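REVIEWER CHECKLIST
Item 1: Sequence provided? yes
Item 2: Single chain? yes
Item 3: Sequence as submitted:
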Amino acid sequence: MEKQSLIKVLTAAGVGSRRKMSEAIKLGRVMVNGEAVTDFNHPVDMAKDKISIDGREVSTQSQKLIYIMMNKPVNTVSTVSDELGRRTVLDLLPQKYRQYRLYPVGRLDKDSTGLILLTNDGELANRLTHPRFENEKEYSVSTNVPMKAAEMRRMEKGIMLEDGMTYPAIVKRLKGGDYSITIHEGRKHQVRRMFEAMGYTVKSLKRIRMGNLQLGSLAAGRVRELRQDEVDGLISQYK
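Item 4: Structure as written out by the authors:
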């Protein structure tokens, strides 16, 4: 069997995201045939080599790739586990998906709602979160008071936050008084901070689109598997 890089084998095995696997390798937590390996590109023969993380053997057998869209409700954290015992997105998964090692792609804070993608496809997850692919994310935002047109235009050009200037955004007024904002960065709490920097309080924030994926009418707390055309669209968009 043709050998593959250690990082590729780990992400394909669905053990965790590429970022987490990279950290594990750097910290010497990954063993190949009983020896610690810190080289991401260390060649691995999936048919012969034994891989473990923190002493636990990793199955390198190919598993079915799963792609699930969830409408994350409030008071739910978008992590695999939570040290404070809060409800996670994995707690909302139907039983039939519990056998797969799924993890969320990107994050929404616990008070935000909307589209979260869960998958065991580590390669795609890495591409969706890597800055160079400029993955578009669209949010519906409700503010305490209406924005002025000039302020919307200012936000579109980019505003200064404590961690630097934001890239240009697309801001639109929606029916009912809410706003749509589209960004392609992944800074922590970025959308909330952008509105707060303009002097507004965010009453609610919901992610309604991620790349070619539309949340649509999916109810809060519910999930659905992506259609094949949606999966193909994600893969082709981020090759």
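Item 5: Key structural point noted by reviewer: Helices lie at 6-12, 18-26, 122-129, 149-157, 190-197, 228-237.
Item 6: Recommendation: ____
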